[in-house]
Every structure is written in C-alpha cells, then in structure tokens.
Design brief:
By secondary structure, the protein is an alpha+beta fold. Helices cover 47% and strands 13% of the residues. Among the domains are: 2-173, no CATH class; 190-373, Immunoglobulin-like; 917-1054, DOCK DHR2 domain, lobe A (Serine Threonine Protein Phosphatase 5, Tetratricopeptide repeat, Alpha Horseshoe), CATH 1.25.40.410; 1062-1212, no CATH class; 1217-1356, Methane Monooxygenase Hydroxylase, Chain G, domain 1 (Up-down Bundle). Residues 460-487 form a coiled coil.
Length: 1391
Amino acid sequence: MSCCPQSNTARAIYPSPGLHTNSLCTPNHSIEDLKREKISFVCQIVRVGRMELRDNNTKKLTSGLRRPFGVAVMDVTDIITGKMDDEDKQHFIPFQPLALDDAIRHRQLNISRFSSRVASENDFLQTVINKVIAAKEVNHKGQGLWVTLKLLPGDIHQIRKDFPHLVDRSTAVARKMGFPEIIMPGDVRNDIYVTLVQGDFDKGSKTTPKNVEVTMSVHDEDGKKLENVIFPGAGDEGILEYKSVIYYQVKQPRWFETIKVAIPIEDVNRSHLRFTFKHRSSQDCKDKSEKNFALSFVKLMRYDGTTLRDGEHDLIVYKAEAKKLEDSTMYLSLASTKPEMEERNPSSGKNTQNLGSFSISKDSFQISTLVCSTKLTQNVDLLGLLKWRSNTSLLQQNLRHLMKVEGGEVVKVRVDHLMHRNTNSQLSFRLDVETYRKFHHFNPVLETYIRKHFSATLAYTKLTKVLKNYVENAEKLTEQLLKALKALEYIFKFIVRSRVLFNQCESDFMESLRNLFTSFNAMMNSNAEGTGGVKGAALKYVPTIVNDLKLVFDPKELRLFHLLRVRVRVRVRVRVCVCVCVCVDCREILLPLMTEQLKLHLENHEELDSCCQLLSNILEVLYRKDVGPTQWHVQIIMEKLLRTVNRTVISMGRDSPLIVSVSLGHRAVPLGCAEFSVFMCLWLVTDFLMETFIMFKDLIGKNVYPADWVIMNMMQNKVFLRAINQYAAVLSKKFLDQTNFELQLWNNYFHLAVAFLTQESLQLENFSSDKRAKIFHKYQDMRRQIGFEIRDMWYNLGPHKIKFIPEMVGPILEMTLVPEIELRKATIPIFFDMMQCEFHFRRCFQTFENEIITKLDHEVEGGRGDEQYKVLFQKILLEHCRKHKYLATSGETFVTLVVRLLERLLDYRTIMHDESKENRMSCTVNVLNFYKEIEREEMYIRYLYKLCDLHKECDNYTEAGYTLLLHAKLLKWSEEACAAHLTQRDGYQASTQCQLKDQLYQEIINYFDKGKMWEEAIILGKELAEQYENEMFDFEQLSALLRKQAQFYENIVKVIRPKPDYFAVGYYGMGFPSFLRNKMFICRGKEYERWEDFEARLLTQFPNAEKMKTTTPPSEDIRSSSGQYIQCFTVKPILELPPKFQNKPVSEQIVSFYTVNEVQKFQYSRPVRKGEKDPDNEFANMWIERTTYVTAYKLPGILRWFEVVSVSAEEISPLENAMETMQLTNEKISNMVQRHLNDSGLPINPLSMFLNGIVDPAVMGGFTNYEKAFFTEKYIQEHANDQEKIEKLKDLIAWQIPNLAEGVRIHGEKVTEALRPFHERLEVCFKQLKEKVEKQYGVRTLPPVSDEWRGSRPRSMVRSFTMPSSQRPLSVASVTSISSDNSPSRPGSDG
C-alpha cells in the first residue's frame, strides 16, 4: 500500500502482501506532500498459485506463481488535508480485478463477474491503478477492502508516545521513499529502493510470448548472495531473493514493483544487484525443465566511488549457459548499462569488449533506483571532502568544490561527516546553504549539532580573523563577504559555542570581537564604490547574531550596537531590542532612537512589517515584570507613536497581509490609552478616540487570527474589552455635557461596542460544550460584560438619546438578538426607552417602528433570532408599555405587530433552505401579505421578487406573471418619479412610474405567454395599447404589441391547452409548520399530472407524514396530535363564465379556458346510499353529498395553491342528480356534434362509441332507469314537491333527441363501409328511442344553423333552450370527480 500523488509516484514502500499485516504507519509526509492536488491510497493484490484459474487436476499444474489479480484504490486527499473527519470511521476501498488469465481469454470463466469499465485483459497493475485513479467510479460488485485511516501529527517516536493504542512496536513502519523535511543528527539511514519497471523479451523458438519471471538478488564481488537484505514490504523480514509477478504471454511486461535493499554500509562498495530471467510454464513438468535464459546486473558503487545514480537504468541483457549466468567473476567485468558500454567505447559506439561466453541479447530490461542514505553520496566533490584524510593536501580544493554541490545533497549527508573534521575558516563557504529558503527545515539540525556535538574549542579565532579580513577588504572580497553575511548567524553560533567551550583568554576574545565590530562600523561609514550590496546585507543579517552575542557580552556593552547608528534601518532593531531593552540603562539610550525611527517609517509607510514586529517586541519587553520600571517608557511610546499607529492601521487595506503584524504590534498599546488622554487637550482627545474607534472596529472585523486560534482570539478580545471600557469612561467624563457632546464620537463608540459584542469569536454557542465551559471559566462571557456597558452608556445619554434614533435601532437590535438570555433581558428594555424618547419629542414613535421592522427583516433572514427571543421581546416590552400612561395601547399594538412579523420571518428562515420550493413560496407569501397589511411597500416589493424568482426556478410562468402584476398595480400611468424602493431590480431602467410599469407589463405579458394564459396577456395588452396610442404615442411599440395580441387570439382558438386537475390537500397535526398546520388548501396540479403522481410528490416533501384514507374532515384528536397527517383528493372547479359570454354562442375553445382558470369555488361529490339497495335500479336511492370549497383567491394566482376560507356541504337528491347527468350529457352531445361539423377530419370512433352508449339501451340502460325510479305513480305521490323537477328531467330527455339526431346524421355521412352494419343498428335503435321519447315527452326542434355558424369554430351551447334554469350549479356525482375532458362518470358506477 502507498499514498500516491496524482503523478502516481509512490511515496512510501509497499507493505507485505500477507493479510497478517493489518497495521501500517507511513511517517514523514511533508507539507508539500499534503498540498498535492490528489493523493490516493493504493493496494496491489497479487495472487499466489497456479498460472490459470482452471479446475483441472492441480497436481499437473505449476503452483506458487505470483500472478497479478487486481487493485484497490481510494482517494484520501480530503482525509490527508483534514477536510474529512477521520475519527473511528471505516472506509470501503472497491476492488478492481484484472482479466488477464488464459482461462478468461478462452472464455472458460464468466467474464460478467469482472468489471470491464476500467480494467481490460491487456492491462498491467500500474495501468489499472492509473485508470482507477482517473475513473469517477468503479463497478466493484461489492468486492473490496475495509480500512481505517487516521492522520497522526509528529514523527514516529512522538506518535508512538501519543497514540500507543494505534501505533505500537508491532505496527509496520513504511518509511518515505525520499528524505523528510528535517534530518536530525543520529538519524542514520542507508536504503536503496529498486523498482522493476519493464522489459521486452523476444519469444525465441516459442510460438507465443514468454511468461517472464524476474528474480532479483544481491551479491558481493565473489558471487556470494547477501542474506536478509531484500525487503519486499514494510514489516517483512529480509529475504534472499525477490521474484516478480508473471504476466501471461506478454512480450513487453510492465511490473512497477518496488523493493527495498538495505545493505550494511561497509558492504555497499562490493555489492551488485543481479536480475535473472526465466520462462515459467503453467505445466509443472515443463516448468521444472526451464532454466534462466538471461541475466542483467548493476553495481551499487560506480567506478568513481559514488553511489548508483537515482533514476531509470537501461540494463544490458546478457545470454549464456545457465550455470555461467550464476558465476559473477565472468560477468562483473562487463558493462552493466548501455551508457556504461558507450563510455568504454566512445569512438566506435560498438561493443568491442571481450564478452567471453556471454552474448548481448536483443531483449531489454529497465529498472529505476532511489538512494535514501545519510552516508552514501552520488556527488564526487562531496565524496572528496568526506575522504579528506586520505589526501589532506586536497582539502582546500575539496572545500572550493563543495561550493558547487547542490544544497539538497549537502543537507542529507550527516552533518558530523562535514563538521567535526573541518573546523577551519573555509567552513563558512558552505554554511550559506542554510540561508536558502529551500533548506530552511535543515536549520534545527545544524543548531542541534552546534549545541550537542560541536567540540572545536579554538574555531572562534580563525572564524573571527577571516570574517574581519572580509569586512576590511569589502571592496575586493565582495562576493566572499556577501556569502559570509548570509551565514553570519551560524558563523557566530560556532564562534560563541567555541568560546563557551574554551573559556580561557577572555580578554583576547572580547578584543577580537570589538575589533570586528569596529571594522563593521568603518565599512558602513565608508563611501567606497561597490559596497552598497554588502552594506544592505549587513543591515539585514547583523541583527541575527544578537541572541548569541548576549551569551558572551554584557548587555550594557551591546547598547554600543549603534555601530550602524547613522545608516541604521528599522529591521536591525527588531532582534536587538528584545535582548538589549531588558536592561533599563539600555532602554534609556535606545528607546528614544527607536521610537523616532519607527514614527518616521510608519508615517512614510516604509517597512511596515519590520516596524510592527519591532513595536510588538518592545511592548512585550515593557510589560514584563522582570525588567524594572517601565511606566515612563510606555508613556514615551504612547506620546510619540500611538496616533501614528492608529492612522497607519486606518489607512491600510482590509485585505493587507500586514494587518496581523499591525494588530500584534498594537495589541498592548490600548492598556494605557485612558491615562494617555489625561495629557491631551480636548480636541486632541476627540481626534485620538475617533481614530482609535475606527481602527478597533476595523481590526475586530478583520479576523486577525484564524477561527480555531481560540486562546489568541480570547486574549485579544480581553485586551479590546478593557480598552473599550476605558474609552467609555473617558466619553462619560469629557463628552457628555451639553457643551462638549460629540455625536459622531458617541455613535462610533456604540458601533464599535456592538461590533465587538457580535463578532464570531465571542459566540460561545458555536463551540462544543466542553470548550464553551473552559472559555467561560477563564474569560467569562465578554458579550454580557460589554452589553451591560452599552446599556449603561445608553441610559447615561439623557436628553441626547433622540439624536440616535433611528440610527442606533439596528445596532441595538443586532445586540439583543445575540442568543444570551441575560444579555437579552438587560438590553431589550432599551427599545422601550427609544419608544418613550421619540414619543416624548414627536408624540409618536413611527420612526422607531419603521426602522425596527426594516432591520428585523434583515437580521432574522441573516440567521439571528429565535423563538425564545420572540417570547422575551413580547413579555418585556408589554410589561413596560402597560405601565406607561400614554403608550399602553399604541405600545401593545406595536409589540403585537412585531411578534406577528417575527413568527412569519422565523418560519420563512426555517424553510428558506428547504428542498421544497412550494413550502418556501408559502412562507414568502405569508411575509409579503403581512407587509402589505401594514403598508410596508418596500419590504412588500422585496418579497414579491423573491417569490417571482422561486416561480421562475420551477417554470411556473403563470404564477410569476401574477406576482409581478402585484408590483405593477402599485404604479401609476404617470410621469411621477420612481422612488428608490420601486426599482429594486437592476434590470429595470426607468426614471418614472410610467416607464417602469411599461417594462413590467412587457415582462408579465411574456410570462403569461409562456404559461399559455393568453386571455390575461390580452387584457394587459389592451391597457398597454391604450397608453401607446393615446398617451405615449409610440406607434412602433403599438404595432408590435398588436401583432403579438393577434397571435394570442389565434392561439386561443387553435392551440389545445392541457387542463390541469385541482386537488384538495389538508395538513393535519401539530407536526407541520405553522403556515400549514391544520389548514386545507386547493392546489393546481401540473400539466397532465394525475392524482397519484401529485400525492406521491406531496408525500416526498413530508416523508414522515401519514396518508389519510378518507375524505371526511379529521377528528380533533388528529388535529391536536404531534404527528403529520395529509389528506388529498381531487376536486372539480366550478365554472364562473364572464358575463359577456353568457347566453351567447361561444366557441368551445374560448369557454374551455374558464373551466379551469379564474376559478375560486371547487366541489367534491361523494355518493351516499340511503335506504335499501334496489337491485333493479340503483339510482332510486343514490344521493350525492356535495362539499363546496372557496379559496382565499382565484386560481391560478401568485401561488399554485390557496387556502380554503369557507366550506359548505349539501345533499343532492337522486332526482337532482339525474337532472345534472342528463344536462351534461346533452352538452357533450352538442359539443361533439359541433366539432364534427367544423372538422371533417376528426376520427369517427369516439362519436360511434358515445352515440351507441346512449341510444342502445342494452349498454347502460339509458334514461330508462330514471323513468323507473322517478316517473312512477308511487314516487310522484311520495314526492309531490318534486313535480317541477320531474318535468324538467322530462324536458331534458326530450331535448336529447334532436341533438342525437344530428349526431346520427353526421355519423351516417362519415361512416366507413366496414362500420355500415354498426351504423344501421344505430339508426334502428335511435328510431325506436325517438318514437318513444317524442310520444311520451313531446317533440323538440333545434333552431336552424346558418352556414356561417356551421363553418365557424365549435360553439358551447350556452343557451337557454339547451339548458333549463336550475336552482344550483350542477356537476357530475362521482367519487373521483370528472376527468379533464369533462366526460361524466356515471353515478354508482363504482358500486
């Protein structure tokens, strides 16, 4: 297993394949490793056994072969980077098998078991790994590995100590293939990683490619195998030789198998790697006869004494007899790689060496190696220095060559190899590697060496002498001096450590250092050309030596460190001040100088980072208790720097990276600000406080420290709190009287205090309970402390309070919304004080009311406020209002208003991120209706657009149009200027109400067009056309609009529009949100949406709800229960035909629109049987229980559903039911006839079936059942009051005949020869029916139909002679209402 980056280069050695290795630790992942774009956890699964997975006689098959089986890959990037919690979580790694076996090739296994999505039969393990890493998913069929992964901080020793339950001595440790960022002294390593990359082998005399197995072993120069030096995986014991996996009949196998070789350092120069190649047969008898057919080798030590280079090596493949291949004396003299062969024969390029009994094969073989050793080097120059004792005369030359060595090669070789042997002055040549940013991780290693291992007692004499020589000859030795200055810190560490070890001749040592500093002074004061660079380097690097100098120098002498006094730069002082300023005498000299320079640089915005660091360091020293009296020195800093620092912070950009440094440097300053104000005149104090308030508010809002730095944030806030309280005292003392009152200053204070209180780092409820308890125990709740201070400062304002209304309403509201109950109790009364204050001055508190409603909307939507706040707000303010003589009534009204708003806003916020957009729409309408009720036009429009956006997301264009129409209705057709709140959307470019209304109408018309509501679009178009024609005189726009209207009219009569069904939905139980709880709604379904689909969609929104199986109103128990119950059934809209269409022949296409639109009343009819069932006539006692629902608004509207505001129920007698059925049947006959008259292409089958169902009494009995039930003497005698209704029913039966006659006539004209017998029977039945009806009920005649009418669109028979007047709206009685095409369901048809 290994953690692999995107490049698929393994970073840790693979553990052994055995399943017994169940715990693995991969330490030393660097920061750069963790920053990789993708890191994968990879498992290579190798099967050990037969060549093929066949169920043949296993005795005849070769066993023990390593065969590739599959891979398992998991992306662990989020776990490694900490984005995913890895605590006690198991992860499933899907297994991806390889289809490589010969049995699979011959279809002897079921290939469907294997996934063909990623792996194919010609893929290698490494190829499959790459494909799986790139693939989005793996078809693993449930196969895979379960692992737990956890990221542990620290090195291996630390994690064994901190996590003994996870990492113990039995845990396998896979060391990094490469060096960690820090190599500590004593960390000895001598590992060589060998990867078998690929090969290319000729099939030779065989008909198919070979099954090549590579065997790797390590031998000395005598051919002896080294034992236990090969490690196939972490946690494994060392083995004698390693055998590769075998790819079946593959000419160019690619293994990518990595093995670790760990050879004792003394044996490396005598050792080499031997690779032998052997063909493995699947048949055991053949396999035994196979011998090694070739060999490759490579020596671990090159001819120049350096170690084998990292990277790929193209090895030469030699062939010979099997026994000779094992004799190292016969091949070690040969070239092992192709580059080596070319070096031996540079002129010809051909091999002229004596091969003996060996021959070079055409086969090829590649490996790659990586040396991870602290003792071996691959650099000749470094090797020369390591072996300096063998030839001391070359030491000077070797040191110079060392300068050319790449830094990484130096830092990975053990430091003691370079240091304890080379203490002369030339050592500084190479120390500059430490100054490279690339190797900054190596610094602790060198420091550890100096502290614990360095032992040269006289090194300081040579180092100071050489360094002094460089400084005095800066013009000539510029390059050497620059390098020395870069390494100055470590040179002085060696000097000081050497001096501490020697501890003799102190006067000589001190004198040599003084002379060195004198040389520095002379160099800095000289005007010699070409020394500018070294002077800058001196300014940069000299401060780094102070901490070491203080070990051997008296601090009083260090104050003479104004060796660079004339041209000193601030950064020189940064490290000097911490050490030197501890001494009082040093501070007296240096502090005035440093403050003057700090002020100069801050005012000029120069080197701000160094300035801030210096100021921070000085203040940290001054606030220590062991440095003597510091009050006067703090006073000096405040007088000279405080206002300068304030102005610098204010002028810095909010995103400036230096803001952290500024905050650090300024953190301790506020503690003395109150005292500082004593020494200022009043106008200076005003300016100072104004600047400080602005700066503090800016710092608080910048989140100087990361959110998880809790202690640092709390410490900073504690300092801020103390400072703010001191400022408050100054405000109350100097700026409260009428003469000196400063409104802006007080305003800034309140905004600063509220910003401090509401900052994220102080919101304790966001922390875990344990962390919250610890913070509270140490720091208390600082929100409560500052909140109480704000309250007291407000009450101290006295008559000045009115100046802060309404500006301070928002900040105070934000403070009261903080979820801390004591803070809320203390600060909510401020609202009553504001009401009282405004009422005193203006006899009302309308300004306060408007402001708090506006701000409350934004605050609650932003996540603040809760149910507890609503209760407290209501309770506290009502108590105060009821005690007031004048505010009792108006105050109580205001509190009720705000509480109602809070309820709606909390509902809206709760549901705002709900997946159900329908619920979000309902909440939005609740809020906008509230704002409309209280005439808050700005907020009303704001929520109108929120609702419109939701509708557009759901493609509810009709509802979006109605929503925008509410905004348009607020506008006039006038040139009156648009108020700002009327144009809340950037898309509208309008300066007058007329222009905005025009744009809104255009958009609404487009929405109605998309929603196929052309009737509504025409109404708006006419109003808009009136303006274009008579007011705006914009005939171009008028012509475009009229063309659009013409298209709408054509669409109405030509385009078939689907008729949506309507559903009654009841939400019962206390488990629903308040805007749904125990309410019933009428919902408009989507196009072609059936009741079953609608109900399923409804239940998806409320997965915990229980579906009610009855349509009767629920009991009180259900309403008051804690659960959720949903009742849903289909209802029929009641047509409300516009007056202009009544008693007129109107096209059916026109009338059909109003059957499902512009509706507000809906009916649900349920059959109820009274008395015993008559088996011969079920209509006699079939009553209808009809419920009528009236909604709050017409549908469609701004929602697809509206609440039911009234419910009424009535019973329909069987006779009345029969009348309704006959009337609807007559209408349908008439409509169908008209359609066929006007469209001869209509199919005849629906007409055939419909007519046959009426005229053939054998089908459903026709109206014969009505005659049996209602026209008998017995019924007439028992229901004397129904005589008029019976006559109307007879009239309806009589009117059916002329309509049927027209239908039969049309049927005869369009009937085909195949249906001619059917038509003849139809005519016979109709003739019998006609004779009977005309004889019993009289003859009715339709008025003549003109040719013009006959050729026009189908007309709805909305005429008095087709429908006798009725006392009530009529509908079909049915359990499921009627279908969308208005075809009636016969009463009782469902039993």
